[in-house]
Amino acid sequence: MFVTPMSKKEIEEYIATGEGRDKAGSYAIQGIFGKYIEKYEGDYDNVVGLPGKRVKEELWQWCIS
Q1: What is the pTM of this model?
Q2: What is the helix (H) or strand (E) element at residue 21, kind and residue range?
Q3: Count of CB atoms within 10 A of residue 40's CB?
């Protein structure tokens, strides 16, 4: 995860939103903090949380076997 450098004011403003209080790492790429994400590597769904496409594929394979 590559985060754009943030000023002290931006950090304080983000903290004041409360968004990070219930998040691992105190941010959500799909939320307010997303504007500070410069780049990420890997599957977006995995970065967000549950890799939906992979779960669907695994369940499908499990059901047909």
Answers
A1: 0.66
A2: none
A3: 14
